[in-house]
């Protein structure tokens, strides 16, 4: 498949599909805010974070696939996919057992934890489609899966409340895994060796460390808030960060589709320059539009539908400022990853995570409220952006591609 103009067309299709999904996601969140109590919202938000942690049980093998699948033959690709599946399954089982004991076999959490495990395994099927260049199939599968993961739990919540919500998420995740996971992965004939294992680990582990640091940075605040302030405060924080979290997914979607193109074109100064510019424009338009909308539309929505949460309006307007750095974070990530600078990115992400964790912990321990946590989140985003831009300059990529 050509990675030129066709990719732009697919990118627009991908973004339009995900605009629909984000809109449905907002409706889902809006209904949950309306129907659930603040403590129930707190459980819901923590459950989603626990489910999301299973997207990182592959210990970096999935990121190795991003590099190897586009250039591998069928047999090698199937072998690498199957090895990733085995690693993913073993570590997911360990993580599931840990969560069982940490949360005392709580029914709500276990439903989301199991659902997260199933959905993370299904995600490997999507990654395979993208890696071998079947982008149209990848986009279609992404749309269908995310649509079902929104619609089915939403219907469950409306029909039976929070109990049925969690069960519905578990059910639909299991259905997607059974229905769409490619059975031919189990037909790989090549045997595995330590060399194969360490090759995948070496490629993927720096990216893994970097991305799991970002995941922890995006979720550690919820668990600290729960520890110091309780589930009600987690529910309030979930309302405050809702719009921010939805918009934050858009730059990630652009990265998900564009990353293989950065790898394929990294030797072409002209193509990388054009691709990066397009990436910046799309990210800038999406994020700036979202910030403007939040200031003019969200107050109206709060007054119309959620008047009891009007007191959170200043915090909602404040946190969207943390989106601005992501205009630059997404393309710099792609540039650095494509040019094998993963270990340096990991250093920046870990430093930013430790900074954010320490600041949030000290603020909550000294009884500061949610407003100060949001200021810390804004600083965390800008610190990430500045660190990555510095890396692009320090590694000579700016001079290589843009001058």
Short description:
This protein is mainly α.
Order of helices and strands: HHHHHHHHHHHHHHH
Q: Identify the overall geometry.
A: globular
- Helix percentage range: over 70%
What's the pLDDT, averaged over the residues?
82
Ends apart, CA distance between termini:
29 Å
Radius of gyration: 21 Å
In this structure, how is the largest beta sheet organized?
none
- Kindly state the number of beta strands: 0
| Percentage beta strand | under 5%
Class from secondary-structure proportions: mainly alpha
Assembly state (oligomeric): single chain
Separate helix tally: 15
Task: Point out poorly predicted stretches.
Answer: 1-6
Number of domains: 2
Please describe what this structure looks like:
By secondary structure, the chain is mainly α. It has two domains: 1-192, no CATH class; 205-403, no CATH class. It is built from 15 helices and no strands. The chain has helices at 5-35, 38-52, 61-68, 74-102, 107-131, 135-180, 194-229, 231-264, 269-296, 298-305, 313-319, 326-338, 342-365, 370-394, 397-402. It is globular. The two termini are 29 Å apart.
């Amino acid at each position: 498949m050509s990675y030129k103009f066709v990719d732009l067309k697919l990118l627009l299709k991908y973004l339009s599909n995900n605009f629909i999904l984000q809109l449905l996601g907002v409706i889902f969140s809006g209904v949950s805010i309306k129907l659930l109590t603040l403590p129930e919202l707190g459980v819901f938000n923590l459950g989603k974070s626990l489910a999301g942690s299973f997207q990182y049980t592959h210990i970096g093998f999935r990121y190795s696939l991003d590099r190897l699948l586009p250039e591998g033959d069928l047999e090698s690709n199937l072998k690498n996919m199957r090895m990733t599946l085995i690693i993913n399954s073993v570590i997911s089982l360990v993580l599931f057992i840990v969560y069982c004991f940490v949360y005392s076999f709580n029914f709500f959490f276990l439903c989301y934890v199991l659902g997260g495990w199933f959905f993370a395994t299904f995600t490997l099927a999507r990654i395979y489609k993208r890696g071998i260049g079947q982008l149209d199939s990848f986009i279609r599968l992404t749309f269908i899966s995310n649509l079902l993961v929104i619609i089915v739990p939403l219907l469950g919540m409306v029909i039976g409340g929070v109990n049925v919500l969690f069960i519905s998420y578990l059910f639909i995740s299991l259905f997607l895994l059974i229905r769409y996971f490619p059975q031919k992965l189990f037909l790989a004939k090549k045997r595995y060796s330590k060399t194969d294992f360490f090759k995948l680990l070496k490629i993927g582990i720096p990216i893994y460390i970097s991305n799991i640091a970002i995941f922890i940075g995006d979720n550690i605040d919820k668990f600290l808030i729960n520890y110091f302030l309780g589930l009600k405060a987690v529910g309030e924080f979930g309302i405050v960060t809702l719009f921010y979290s939805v918009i934050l997914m858009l730059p990630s979607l652009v990265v998900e589709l564009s990353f293989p193109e950065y790898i394929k074109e990294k030797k072409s100064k002209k193509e990388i320059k054009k691709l990066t510019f397009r990436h910046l424009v799309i990210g800038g338009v999406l994020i700036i539009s979202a910030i403007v909308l939040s200031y003019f539309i969200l107050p109206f929505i709060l007054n119309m539908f959620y008047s009891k949460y009007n007191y959170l309006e200043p915090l909602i307007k404040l946190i969207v400022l943390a989106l601005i750095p992501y205009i630059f974070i997404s393309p710099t990530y792609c540039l650095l990853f494509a040019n094998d600078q993963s270990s340096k990115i990991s250093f920046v992400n870990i430093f930013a995570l430790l900074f954010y964790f320490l600041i949030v912990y000290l603020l909550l321990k000294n009884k500061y409220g949610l407003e100060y946590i949001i200021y810390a989140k804004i600083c965390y985003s800008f610190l990430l952006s500045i660190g990555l831009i510095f890396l692009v300059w320090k590694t000579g990529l700016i001079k290589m591609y843009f001058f």
